[in-house]
Amino acid sequence: MSTPNLRRLLRGVWSRRRHLLSYARGVLRGHPGARIGRGVRLSGPGRYRIERGATLTTGVRIWVGDGATFTLREGAKLGDRTIVNAATSVTIERGTRVSWDVQIMDTDFHWIENADGTRRPHKAAIVLGPRALIGARSMVLKGVTVGEGAVVGAGSIVRRSVAPGVIVSGNPAREVGQVTDWGSAPA
Ligand SMILES: CC(C)(COP(=O)(O)OP(=O)(O)OC[C@H]1O[C@@H](n2cnc3c(N)ncnc32)[C@H](O)[C@@H]1OP(=O)(O)O)[C@@H](O)C(=O)NCCC(=O)NCCS
After folding, report:
1. Average pLDDT over all residues of the chain
2. Which residue's CA is minimally distant from atom 42 of ligand 1?
3. Substitution site in 81, 162, 176 for ligand 1 pocket (most atoms within 8 Å of beta carbon)
């Protein structure tokens, strides 16, 4: 190989190093084909199903409890510093985009007793998507299903399930509009 070609090859490899490193982390951590960013922490005794083509970006932290499952399907992506706690089941469907600093927890971690001595349920499975968009700094709590293609506005607290194709926002998140499609735009 001529020197200019070798230089070009090395430049190409260098400029794509982050991309390649994230794939390498996927392989090393037992999720080949998935991209795993720097400082990602996957803990707990539960089951991880991270499909090929899924992405966990910098600083994502996931804990999966005993007997629980975390599923991240192909083309789904968790943004920087997002935190997931799964005590039963958290599923993020194909093509769903979770922004940065989002919290997803299917458990309250504490039980709460009513005046009559009964306890409120404190954990329930979460399903996001497919092709849903979860806005930055929002929080998704136990038992929520976000329907296909739905959008959760930034900073929302989602306590109730969201129908497909709906935009919700606020605390508690309420329907504020409808959506037929969404995509990435230049910043
Ligand atoms: C969801 C979102 C995309 C909608 O944006 P938009 O189409 O411009 O819509 P608007 O912000 O104008 O809101 C639509 C309506 O919902 C209302 N609304 C928006 N946020 C609300 C809130 N937090 N509480 C109550 N109502 C709210 C608005 O008042 C508006 O109602 P109006 O038309 O009667 O005034 C936007 O609010 C958002 O969250 N953007 C950030 C997305 C993000 O996190 N990206 C990170 C990269 S993945």
Report:
1. 95
2. 135
3. 176
The alpha carbon of 168 and the centre of ligand 1 are apart by a number of angstroms equal to 8
Q: Name the CATH topology of 3-178.
A: UDP N-Acetylglucosamine Acyltransferase; domain 1 (2.160.10)
Please answer whether residues 40 and 25 qualify as being in contact, where contact means their C-beta atoms are separated by less than 8 angstroms: yes
Report the sign of the C-alpha dihedral through residues 150, 152, 185, 11, in that order. negative
Nearest-atom number in ligand 1 for the CA of 79 is 48
What does the pLDDT look like over 109-154, one tens digit per residue? 999 999 999 999 999 999 999 999 999 999 999 999 999 999 999 9
Assigned token pair, 58: 């910098």
